[in-house]
Amino acid sequence: MKKTNIPNISYFLALDIGGTWIKGTVIKETFLKSDLNQLSSVKVKSPLKINAQPKQLTNALKELLTNLQVSSENIKGIGISTPGIVNYEGSKVVGGNPYLEILQSETWKNELETLFQCHVSFINDADAVAIGLSQLGKLKGNKTIGLMPIGTGVGFSIWRNGRRWRPGKLLPLVGSIITPKGDYNNLVSASNLAVFDKNHDLIEVLLNNTYQKERKQYHLNLLNLIYSVAIIYGLDEVIISGGLVEAANVCNYPLQKELDRNYPEFSTKLDKPLKIIVSENGNSLQLIGALALAKAESIAYKYREVVPNNKMVTETPYIKDIQLQNMDSGAIIETMWEAEQRSGEALKESLSKISNVVDIVVKKLEKGGRIIYVGAGTSGRIAAMDAVEIPCTFGFPEDRVLALISGGITDATMEIETNFEEDASAIPEMLLLDLCPEDSVIGITASGSAYYVQSALAFAKSIGSYTVMIRAEIAESKLSLCDDVIALHSGHEVIAGSTRMKAGTATKKVLNFMSTTIMIKLGKVAGPYMVNMACINTKLIERAVNILKTLYNLTDNEALQKLKDSNMELDKAIKNNKL
Q1: Order of strands, edge to edge, in the sheet holding 144-149?
Q2: Which DSSP letter does residue 482 get?
Q3: How confident is the model at residue 437, as a pLDDT?
Q4: Rounded to two decimals, what is the model's pTM?
């Protein structure tokens, strides 16, 4: 990629800050996904070490920019990939190796934003790899994949059915797993493999037969780690990248072949097949992910809308002077019932809009798109419930209806909203989905203020996806960050701000209306019966039998036999028995 310092051209800057090198690249603001395969990068020695000073890092960055032949005023957004634990907001490193101390303060980030006059986002290097692979179309399907960049240490991220997967909300620090021989950051580190050569030349270690014994032990260490994480996280694939792969690619070292040769003895211990993939991309994946992040975050920030608290109808009580604490249970419940009744009646005003949205989403789905819900707090949990129920109720593919919740999907039922998650950006999660124009993104935020939802919609709209916000009331002016708005008309809450009540009830109704009608329009219902449900337990089998009995006037035994003849697939049984 040709790099010139032309004042009227803007670039996004990606940095991959490691313990050995800082790698960087720029790409034009107007870049397309296809351009990501043609990146060129430069690198400078990393000054990161214990007690390093911010000025040393700034000077290294200035050297890198000089080598890239781009000046600071041309940079529109910056994405930074780094080892260690990055906070949910993507503003700083909050844990990891002591040499990352400089990055554990927002001071350096603030200095960068002042210098470049643009937004700066941090992301863990393994998560950057996941985004990079997703942007290249290499993360697909309903499966669980472990991403493992190997350089100075070992990074790890889990991609599961389009989403970043973090049990317990924690970054899986697999490099810190301790064995009798030491932790895996040492046993599998590419840098530690390089030290066997007197000049610390990794390529020399990979190619020189003198180091054959060391290479063999290294391969076994790496396979031991892969085997361990495959068991712990139930992986279908592991994709290796980073400095190790970069060096192997440069010198044509057959890393994939060496791992495949030793893998069979491990595979017999796993309960399902595991595919190990050595990526054709080495260090470029971190940079690709960081570039995608920089561009998407700049879009999200451009359309961010701050909703003042006094403009949020949900923050005003339903009855201003009510003293709930002094009322008996019956009076409290009657008050809530009355409020819900009025809210339910008011929702009728939005039925026409819901119908229009459904028709657009159906057309998108017929072209192969997906439904993607995005929500924070109660809204997110309700959306997740709807997304989970659609596949089993209507036989719709699991990877075509997804939900994202601020804070992470893993523990949504137990832990959420503990660290201002709704104020964070949804961009990293959205990038992992590899959005396309055929997708429909439904953002749910009763107040309309959750930036997690706003950022998702703004980015999705820029991709060409159909975008809808569900909120308590219509905005005072047309929202530029989405295509349509569905108003809940839920009004003031009995307990001010508690949107799990009227707004939550209305949200569930709207999603029920939308998803059920969409499935009907897609042919998943015959008369009043669901015909694509999964017959996976006794109750569902009995339901399928009763449906066949009703539709075709069969006996119990005849209906059950028809179902068995169709491999327990109700829709197939109905198609096979149509008159």
Answers
A1: 163-164, 157-160, 144-149, 237-241, 275-278
A2: -
A3: 96
A4: 0.88
Q: Is the pLDDT of residue 202 over 90?
A: yes
> How would DSSP label each residue in 506-555?
HHHHHHHHHHHHHHHHTT-EETTEESS-B--SHHHHHHHHHHHHHHHT--
pLDDT given for residue 315 in this prediction:
67
Q: Quick check: 30 pLDDT over 90?
A: no
pLDDT reported for residue 342: 85
Banded pLDDT at 333 (limits 50, 70, 90): confident
Q: Contacts from 497-501 at CB under 8 Å and sequence distance 24+?
A: 497/314, 497/315, 499/314, 499/377, 499/378, 499/379, 499/446, 499/447, 499/472, 500/377, 500/378, 501/336, 501/339, 501/340
List of domains in the chain: 11-129+286-297 (3.30.420.40), 137-279 (3.30.420.40), 306-521 (3.40.50.10490), 529-576 (no CATH)
C-alpha closest to that of 335 among 356, 321, 352, 351: 321
Contact 108, 102 (CB under 8 A): yes
Average pLDDT over residues 327-355: 87
Rounded distance between C-alpha atoms, residue 481 and residue 469, angstroms = 9
How far apart CA 568 and CA 534 sit, in angstroms, is: 8
